[in-house]
Amino acid sequence: MARHLITSAIPYINGIKHLGNLVGSQLPADLFARFQRARGNEVMFVCATDEHGTPAELAAAKAGKPVDVFCAEMHQVQANIARRFGLSFDHFGRSSSPQNHRLTQHFAGKLAENGLIAEVSERQVYSNADGRFLPDRYIEGTCPNCGYDKARGDQCENCTKQLDPTDLIEPRSAISGSTDLEVRETKHLYLRQSALRQELSEWIDSKTDWPILTTSIAKKWLNDGEGLQDRGITRDLDWGVPVKKGDQPWPGMEGKVFYVWFDAPIEYIAATAEWADANGKPADEWRRWWRLDEGAGDVRYTQFMGKDNVPFHTLSFPATIIGSGEPWKLVDYIKSFNYLTYDGGQFSTSQGRGVFQDQALSILPADYWRWWLLSHAPEGSDSEFTWENFQQSVNKDLADVLGNFVSRITKFCRSKFGETIPEGGSYGPEEQALVQALTTRIRAYEGFMEAMEVRKAANELRAIWVLGNEYLQSAAPWSTFKTDPEKAAMQVRLGLNLIRLYAVLSQPFIPFAADSMLAAMRTDDRAWPDDVSAALDTLPAGHAFDVPEVLFAKITDEQRDEWQERFKGARA
RNA sequence: GGGCCUGUAGCUCAAUGGUCAGAGCAGGGCGCUCAUAACGCCUUGGUUGGGGGUUCGAGUCCCUCCGGGCCUACCA
């Protein structure tokens, strides 16, 4: 039995995410996790909220709440949304957990022991009015290059010139607008990634099967300019993991915390530890997923993320792990995604453009979104959400092809044989051909799922559904019933068994509908169809079932128009 | 500016350098009547963004131009 460790990029805490965040990491990760479990493999699927950093502090302040309270609340909100989308995390943790504090401090201590931490004294902008150091992009002013008056300290959005905050004319805090700024000396820890460049480079070069999107971004950072640069891993903030060297104080670093991007990936490990603690399991239960010397030798580790996360997962986090000198599990495969765009533009949290996760769930069941998003996953390039496409795809694939199949066969059986699987008859050539066609397509489906070819897997699954309609059309039990009721009984029995088969195969994509289908067939047999012929004998003659409610109601033109209007911008 | 990705049917996408560039949707025709006016079969539709080159052979490799997107290290 294979063992799969699966992590999804951890969503930031500062608000409810839009659909792009869902399709870029959590949803495909869930698809893969569900598939591997369905195949009988052992799976550890973890995710968490990413809770540290300046934006979290500012969002909390805006909400008028202490940051820890704000994060605890938002964690619950996000956990609830994730549950309602059917995201099957074994644990949904928090990067602010005590487990992550300990592990982050542990890694920093090991890196320091190995000479991979440098203490650097630098000058940063401090805002007296805000009482905090300001990250470059939180400083605004007039661009010295083009005169644009809302240039940010890292770059001018108008002329795209790279800037240093001290270049700005009349700089002010982007938070309060205060011009009472000063440059202060402050000391920070840097992770000496440059010292690990060769090792990282060879490691990346060995990953020849990774998506181009993943490796090209990594190589750019490794080779651009002077090569991989060291990265500051501490910040002058109140909220975060206090800087410590293992469990010891770090002289000179009092009052500082680790940089969010240092502790966030470590949360993958910590979330697994949180899982063990939450379930009353001893530490070796989680360590067997992460420590090569404690049982993780046969684990395959797959990460899912949007392309913006790639540098941290291909370089910074591996540098942390390799640099620790300890046998922690490195990622085996990184599946990265492009962006989902909304009606020709970007989803925008600030402008309320596009559909947010809570809104999506408030208008349609999760499976509608799961199906559309996964079958249109932005694998090769960015993909676009439009209401027309969404309505068309969902109505056709889910309502017409799958839902109507379930409806027509169950209702036909009820009217001719009652709500019990009918007896009699045996397979002819048509049924043999169907089994053969199903087998071919199911094997292809497995291959695509194994390879995380999400769109291709969706296409194949849809083609499997279509086979059911093709069979019914040519078998025509409504005709055979008139001349040969036994044959019609066999055809109907096969059709009803297809519903269970489809539920099992479709469950990674549309888990809620799959559950409804199994419930209607009054079975909980989720055995994977390694033998298709046997799988179609699962429900025997005499087995009672229910005609289910409409599985997928269609999206009407009126609904589509209303939603299009409602979500075009300026969130209520 | 630099780097990377991308451009294939009206739309969304496929195609280890090798038959006539294929699917789904949309459009058109026919069939069926079990079904959510659903399903099935057939079918229209292409100078693969433009131009040049390498090759026996290019959607695929090279050069160049045009369009779209992303990244560029203190947002995460």
Automatic annotation (TrEMBL):
The UniProt entry annotates the motif 'KMSKS' region at: 346-350
Location of the Methionyl-tRNA synthetase anticodon-binding domain: 421-571
User: Which Gene Ontology BP terms does the record give?
Assistant: methionyl-tRNA aminoacylation
Task: Relay the cofactor remark from the entry.
Answer: Binds 1 zinc ion per subunit.
Query: Pfam families under this entry?
Result: Anticodon_3 (PF19303), tRNA-synt_1g (PF09334)
- Cofactor(s) listed in the protein's UniProt record: Zn(2+)
Q: Where in the cell is it found?
A: Cytoplasm
UniProt: ATP binding residues: 349
Q: Which domain of life is it from?
A: Bacteria
Q: Which N-terminal stretch is annotated as signal sequence? A: none
Which UniProt keywords are given for this protein, alphabetically ordered?
Aminoacyl-tRNA synthetase, ATP-binding, Cytoplasm, Ligase, Metal-binding, Nucleotide-binding, Protein biosynthesis, Zinc
The entry lists its GO molecular-function terms as: ATP binding; metal ion binding; methionine-tRNA ligase activity
Subunit info here reads: Monomer.
Function of the protein: Is required not only for elongation of protein synthesis but also for the initiation of all mRNA translation through initiator tRNA(fMet) aminoacylation.
Q: Which family does it belong to?
A: Belongs to the class-I aminoacyl-tRNA synthetase family. MetG type 1 subfamily.
- The identity of this protein, by name, is Methionine--tRNA ligase
